[in-house]
Amino acid sequence: MTPAASRRGILAAVSVALFCIQLDFFALNLALPGIGESFHTSSQATQWTISAYMLALGSMFIVGGRLGDMFGRRPVLLWGIGIFVLSSVGAAVAPDIGSLIGFRVIQGIGAAFIFPVGVSAISNAFPDHIRARALGLTFGLANLGTALGPFVGGGLAGGPGWRWIFWVLAALAAACFLLAARFVPDSRDAAADRHVDLPGALLIAGGVGLLSLGFIQGSSWGWASLATWLCFAGACACFVVFVFRERLVQHPLVDLRLFRNLPFVLVMTTGAVGNVLYAVTVFVESLYLQNVRGLSPLLAGTLFLAPALMVALSGPIGGRLASRFQPSAVMIAAALTAGIAVFCLTFVVSWGAFVTVFAVAGLGLGLGYTFVNVATQDLVPLERTGEASGVVLTVVVTMGGIGVALAATIISGFQHGGHGVADAYATTLRIFAIICFCWAIIVLGARAVLVRRGNMAPLFSRPTPNRTGARRPPEATLDEAGTH
User: Fold this and answer.
1) Residue 466 has what pLDDT?
2) Most distant CA atoms of the chain, gap in Å
3) Cα angle, residue 113 at apex, residues 187 and 253 outer, rounded to 5°
4) Who has the most CB within 10 Å: 37, 47, 162, 332?
5) Is residue 190 assigned to a domain?
6) Is residue 167 located within the same domain as residue 286?
7) Domain presence at residue 271
8) Are residues 170 and 96 in the same domain?
9) Are 73 and 117 in contact (CB under 8 A)?
């Protein structure tokens, strides 16, 4: 078992790395106008600095997580951080929008290696009785990037300039590299063959990339256009071939039996729906505060501090709840809280009420995002935590990106239909809040049926550890968890 002093170093290294990823995404939203002015380009082109990052991130999560399991979490984590550092420097000195987008793609690949491998490194370094709390603390510290992202991005964009966002990221990631090199030990799936399923990796990356591209560009190309439907058809083809290949290949990239683990699937899907609402809320409220309330980027970022700090607190809270409640119970509560709070947020007017309700929404949204990453680590064997983390992050992040693309389309549709800007923003948020709330009710009902059939443990029973060292509910059998 890893010594306590080393565990603290591992936690610090992974937390700082995840902090950089969170800060990167949330800081750049408010800097887009400044980027457009610097390069004299359209808002659609500048939006690709975020979309390209998300495409690369979502496409490579599974590959990054499984590479860590196979070849060692330490080297893959260091490679990911190194790529992130160099691409951040490249983005800071980018001479044009095309170069910036290219460096953002490379940044996304580095982040896709860091996130699942870092989470898996924590899972393998900490003993069972404190693993969930360690993951909760890691996400709590990482989520400070969410809290500070809009504030830092707005402040730097309105001050020395948007390029300083990337200089800050490069410096933080370089410090993280030194920490990881010093403290993170090597761990891997000893039973895994070192043969990389390259066709499988290309298929899953292509499928996720084409699906995301179709949704991102759908409103520009037209939802009925040939290009959009070719993206969707190509994505479906990639996914179908991927499933057939993984069932037949000797050393699959993803063990598909993972999806027979009912607790894992319920937690992951609820987390995905919750993250759609999370991403849409950040996107819509950023527009609302600037375009309707008339706030500057810095002031808009300041108003994000209250909900984002609640997101940060959700990490330690989620870690403590993991040992007391079934994972799906926490996820259902988080989704219900988030759905109700975001729906109410669209009706409040005064700043005091707005900040208060926004903070409650941040708690629900943050708990859902954090807990899906914490709980799913406890639902699979330790040797395959990187793979599981990659699958979860692929689904959760990709769905979040798709949600933002759909939200932009819905807002545009309402405006073209004669609705005012404020009304379009509010109605869009209500739609996604209702979807999140209804999904939580559906999962609650489905779970009740499964409990009556004896397929799952009661909702509020305490999770129990098993012999593998992974904490899983009684109903998650070895076969369901995807073990051999």
Assistant:
1) 42
2) 63
3) 75
4) 162
5) no
6) no
7) yes
8) yes
9) yes
Domain extent, residue 449, equals 257-484
Instruction: Report the b/e string of 399-426 with b at 16+ CB within 10 A.
Output: bbbbbbbbbbbbbeebeeeebeeeebbb
Question: Given a cut of 90, is residue 423 above it in pLDDT?
Answer: yes
Strands 471-472 and 464-465: antiparallel
Give the helix, strand, coil percentages of the chain, each rounded to 5: 80, 0, 20
Burial class (CB in 10 A: 0-12, 13-18, 19+), 33: middle
In this structure, is residue 191 part of a structural domain?
A: no
Same domain (yes/no): 238, 334: no
Residue 175: closest CA among 7, 28, 9, 313: 9
Tokens found for residue 463: 């999770």
Same domain for 152 and 12, yes or no, is: yes
pLDDT band, residue 475 (cuts 50/70/90): very low
Range list of β-strands (E), 312-447: none
Taking Cα atoms as reference points, which of 425, 249, 296, 301 lies closest to residue 27?
A: 301
Taking the whole predicted model, whether its pTM rises above 0.70 is answered as yes
Neighbours of 392 (CB within 10 A): 28
